[in-house]
């Protein structure tokens, strides 16, 4: 069993406390439960932002970057992709999450700084036919890459992150507990500017 980050355990416990009474009667997300789910989704997006910054930082040791990549991958639904854009081309390329992280780590700059800001929901959670809920969070990413030989590149990218919310089960003290979990999905580039 994977070791979970303590804040996810705390937020999951909060989600469970909202969920236990009504779970047997309905699969709908109450306003209180939705608020807890929204908090967990935004927390996972902020964690991804930190992980990307660590992976892209040229000062990060290879072993540490790999450990952080493993943690970051756990945030995503299977087969999720991340978009990569540039000011030099209008084309956006998409890579599986692990491949994106590996490419980020291998960028040909001596110094890389990546920051995310203005993180917020742009679409409310909508129930899908399979019982899952889907929403979209938007972020702005500022990328700066510099090299000792004078190479300098900066851009700002607007990205839309698909959020999946689904009911899962876990065993606690021999009891089956249902709870809502949040996974990140595809990250689509919607705009790139200098």
Strand tally: 6
Query: What is the spatial order of strands in the main beta sheet?
Result: 3-4-5-6
Give the fraction of residues assigned to helices. Answer: 25-40%
Mean pLDDT: 87
Largest sheet at a glance? 4 strands, antiparallel
Question: Using only CA atoms, what is the Rg?
Answer: 18 Å
Low-confidence stretches: 13-26
Distance between the termini: 44 Å
Give a structural overview.
This protein is an alpha+beta fold and 194 residues long. Helices cover 34% and strands 44% of the residues. It has four helices and six strands. A four-stranded antiparallel beta sheet has the order 3-4-5-6. A two-stranded antiparallel sheet has the order 1-2. The chain is globular and about 60 Å long. The termini are far apart. Residues 13-26 have low confidence and may be disordered.
State the main characteristics.
single chain; 194 residues; 34% helix; globular; signal; two-stranded antiparallel ribbon
